[in-house]
Amino acid sequence: MSHVFTPPAVVSVPVAGGGGEFPVHRIYCVGRNYAEHAVEMGFSGREPPFFFMKPADAVVSVADGETGTIAYPSLTADLHHEIELVVAIGRGGSDIAVADAASHIWGYAVGLDMTRRDLQAQAKKQGRPWCIAKGYDQSAPIGPIRPIAQTGELASGEISLAVNGQPRQRGDLKDLIWNVSETIAAISAAWKLQPGDLIYTGTPAGVGAVQRGDVMLGAIAGLGTLSVAVR
Ligand code: MN
Q1: What is the domain-level CATH number for residue 49?
Q2: What number of helices (H) and strands (E) belong to the chain?
Q3: 153 lies in a domain?
Q4: Structural domain includes residue 5
Q5: CA 156 to ligand 1 center in whole angstroms
Q6: Is residue 203 pLDDT above 90, yes or no?
Q7: Residue 45 pLDDT exceeds 80
Q8: Which domain holds residue 206?
Q9: SS3 207
């Protein structure tokens, strides 16, 4: 059977150190997963985890030592940064047990869940979907994926973001409300996880706006940095 037009290329993220390309299937994201960020967004406590998605082709891959570029998106005047640990799934499954979840991880990366915050606020107020606020084009910058075989399982370590050299966000992976294993278990109860799925695990406190010309520098202990300019 022939396609009626050329299919789009497979979206992929480079593996650090020239280790090939990680093909992306879906991008899952966790909402409000650090207590201090939940508070700054007007919530508190350990509410059940909730999820949204970005299209796979929202990925903007940035190589080690380089500064990637994203365009300031249309329809917003309040583009926010959210620095996040990204988990790359290597083995799929449904109803994965928390105790088995780590064995489904292929690796990790530093990612940015870029957000049209004004459109998200409108959507929340009107009870509408978040797609236009969270799943727009180029909304998922990401650094190289580092294999868990090299990093070990990441359960703690600093996660931070600076804009133009000024500190904005700071947290620790150990302060995730729903840790990575619990998150994998919860997502796999709702969808069948597949090899190639990426999970943006939530952002620590300190989210804020960026403007054209700003450069964001995110970092996670053990995973290096992610540098992205807004043009
Ligand atoms: Mn987020």
Answers
A1: 3.90.850.10
A2: 5, 18
A3: yes
A4: no
A5: 18
A6: yes
A7: no
A8: 12-230
A9: coil
